[in-house]
Amino acid sequence: MTAWHEIGLVGVCTEGQLREFKVSDQVVLLWCHDGEFHAVQGICPHMKVHLAKGKVDGTVITCPGHGSRFDLITGEVVGWLETLHGPAKAFLERAGKRQNLVVYPVKVVDKRVMVQF
Ligand code: FES
Hints:
four-stranded antiparallel beta sheet; binds FE2/S2 (inorganic) cluster
């Protein structure tokens, strides 16, 4: 069953900023882009590194762990383990399977940012 969860007032995240929130045992990454809020799972599906310290280029975030890249709007994987090569890549590929980020619906109600999961 899904529910809407408040994560803060609209000022919690300014244009281009990434913010991590823990809400009801979920780590949520909130990103403000072109005046809209976007929310995805805040933990990399590979080896559970927090994505909030990743670098954003356009709409794509690069995981600080091993360079997997995800679109912050669609959640899609656009690159997987890109900083790994050879035997290290083969070994660490087994640690977690290639998987898109979960995208959470976001709405603003009375200046409060709400995320659904
Ligand atoms: S933890 Fe994110 S790519 Fe390995």
